[in-house]
């Protein structure tokens, strides 16, 4: 169970959506506690988000970045982001791959961590509970309908879709 929990945490550090699906799989197939799965995924999500913020904050050390940050354009962007921080981070959580630049920008533009992390924590909790509940419910339903091979169906669909897109791009005129 320790390896299973560590897997959920590490995957959450890399990609939140994959971690949620992995956690749902472990809950449905391996009998992992849903609370434990959610807690491990949540901890990994927060670690990932904090690392992104700190990476953006680290970029401020460079001289050319400091010069740019003192321009009027950067100051206007920072003030706009500060005014709309909750909305920006909440919508960024919903959009695929939009959270990374938002968190990097918060760190880069020196939005205080004490303002960013509560919003990140709240949006991550809501997102995680919603999607994990949905994935567990659908996983249990599909498992009852299709059986033990239920988890193969989405993987096969993703592989087929990827192959279709790759072949379509390859055959497209240049």
Largest sheet: none
**Element string (H = helix, E = strand):** HHHHHHHHH
Radius of gyration: 20 Å
How far apart are the termini?
51 Å
Q: Which whole number gives the mean pLDDT?
A: 86
Count of all domains: 1
Structural class based on helices, strands and sheet pairing: mainly alpha
Number of strands: 0
Task: Please tell me about this protein's structure.
The chain has one domain. By secondary structure, it is mainly alpha-helical. Helix 1 packs antiparallel against helix 2, helix 3 (34-59) packs antiparallel against helix 8 (113-146) and helix 6 (85-94) packs antiparallel against helix 7. It has nine helices and no strands. It has helices spanning 2-14, 16-30, 34-59, 63-69, 72-83, 85-94, 99-108, 113-146, 152-171. The mean pLDDT is 86. The relative contact order is 0.12. The chain is 84% helix and 0% strand.
Structure summary:
By secondary structure, the chain is mostly helical.
């Amino acid at each position: 169970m320790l390896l299973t929990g560590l897997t959920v945490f590490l995957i959450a550090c890399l990609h939140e959506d994959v971690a949620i699906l992995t956690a749902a799989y472990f809950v449905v197939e391996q009998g992992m506690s849903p609370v434990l799965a959610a807690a491990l995924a949540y901890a990994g999500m927060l670690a990932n988000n904090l690392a992104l913020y700190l990476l953006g904050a680290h970029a401020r050390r460079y001289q050319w970045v400091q010069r740019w940050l003192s321009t009027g354009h950067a100051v206007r962007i920072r003030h706009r982001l500060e005014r709309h921080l909750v909305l920006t981070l909440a919508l960024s959580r919903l959009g695929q791959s939009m959270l990374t630049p938002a968190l990097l920008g918060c760190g880069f533009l020196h939005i205080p961590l004490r303002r960013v992390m509560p919003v990140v924590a709240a949006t991550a909790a809501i997102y995680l509970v919603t999607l994990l509940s949905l994935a567990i419910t659908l996983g249990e339903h599909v498992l009852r309908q299709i059986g033990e091979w239920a988890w193969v169906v989405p993987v096969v669909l993703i592989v087929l879709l990827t192959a279709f897109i790759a072949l379509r791009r390859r055959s497209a005129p240049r």
